[in-house]
Amino acid sequence: MMAKVLVSLDTGLVERLDREARARGVSRSALIAELAAKGLGEPLGPGARPEARHAIERIQSLFTGREPAEDATAVIRSMRDERTERDARFG
Q1: Mean pLDDT for the chain?
Q2: Nearby residues of 32 by Cβ (< 8 Å), 6 or more positions away
Q3: Across 42-60, average pLDDT
Q4: Whole-angstrom Cα distance, residue 43 to residue 54?
């Protein structure tokens, strides 16, 4: 649940907040919420923000129920072995 608040800030600070929010691609409100949470010691690691969790869930849904086309370990071993054989021939 979110609460709306009205705060008074120095104009210069608001301008800095707006520049930072634009640079991060977030709203001023989201930036202030993140900075306040961080300042109060709330955990803000990867996936702590709802937007990040939603993005991670969307990415994971792309792979749900799908098997990899190839075994990555087998492919890497095969490439390594081919390179070793080639190096031995042309040494």
Answers
A1: 88
A2: 17
A3: 80
A4: 17
Site of tokens 């008074």: 8
Tokens of 65: 């129920």
Whole-angstrom CA distances from 26 to 18, 39, 44 are 9, 18, 15
Length, in residues, of the chain: 91
Closest CA to 34 of 19, 23, 22, 50: 50
CA-to-CA dists, residue 4 to 1, 29, 50, 52, 61, angstroms? 10, 10, 18, 22, 33
pLDDT in tens, 11-36: 999 999 999 999 999 999 999 998 99
Chain segment 65-88, per-residue pLDDT in tens = 877 778 889 999 999 999 999 888
Question: Shortest CA distance to 31 belongs to which of 9, 57, 63, 60?
Answer: 9
Q: How far is residue 71 CA from its own chain's centroid?
A: 26
Of residues 31, 7, 10, the one with CA closest to residue 19: 31
